[in-house]
Structures are given as C-alpha cells and as structure tokens.
Amino acid sequence: VTKRYGATTAVARVSFRVGDGETFALVGGSGSGKTTTLKMINRLIEPSGGCVRIDGVDTASLDAHVLRRRIGYVFQGIGLFPHLSVARNVAVPLELLGWDRDRIAARVAEVLALVELAPALAGRRPAELSGGQQQRVGVARALAASPGLLLFDEPFGALDAITRDRLQ
Hints:
By secondary structure, the protein is α+β, with helices and mostly antiparallel strands. The protein contains six helices and six strands. A hairpin with a 2-residue loop joins strand 3 and strand 4. Helix 3 crosses helix 4 (101-114). The longest helix has 14 residues, at 101-114.
C-alpha cells in the first residue's frame, strides 16, 4: 500500500503478510509511516494506492464500520472516551455488536482482570486513572470482542517494564 498527502509520500509501497497466530511488528523512526500503515489496515485512512487484504478479502470491499468491528485497535494516544467510565469504554465494541447487558458485564469484568485492572476502577473515568491504567483500558477494549486481528500502536509506552512484560 501507498499513502500520499499531496506531494508527500507518507508510506511507499509497503507490503507484508502476517499468518494466523503470528505477531508482527512495524519498526521505524518517528514519522516513518507506522501509524499511517495501521490506520490504512482498518480504513481510518484510505490508501492512495494498492490494497489491504485480510483473509484474502480486499478491505475496500467492506463497509469500514463493519471491518473495524472485526479488528481490535489500541491507539497511540489511547483514544478513550473521557465522558464514559472504564467499564463503558470497554463495553463500546460489545454494544456495537449487539451483545446483551449480562454478557457485556461478564466480558468487561473478564478483560479488565486480564489486563490487571482492579474491579474498583470500572466506574472511574479515564482522567481519574494513571497513564498506564489508561493504556490497559485501551488494551482491554481492543480485546473485548475477541477480534481476529489486533493492531497495537505503541500500546505499552506508559507502562513499567514488569507490567509491560506481563501484558505482552
């Protein structure tokens, strides 16, 4: 895929394959196109050229919102909704999928435990959490619907080394 902004090429003919169960990392300096590439995968940004295929399907053939519901994405800037509680932030993708309230509550509790966030934090707003706790909420939200694909854009930057290792 390629992404151009006017005369500037942000991503030039990037091509890679990732198999089921594999972890793949894009490594490069600031401004090298890593975030742009991730955003093209889930169609937050449309490529200027080429195509993205997931399981052999060109993502441009899918409605963007349908595609995004199949992909977990942890934003570099965390991207939590400041007016929602931790639990509601994690529940958003499940609500969009039409899950019932009891199933949502059970899954929210499960993924918050998975990322080592105490149940007492579920009612707090993101501003009441540390940066590392906010990042873990973002990871929990990405994992909530058990997507087949997870995109992480520097998700562990605010975490200490021990917590980062456990979450990975």
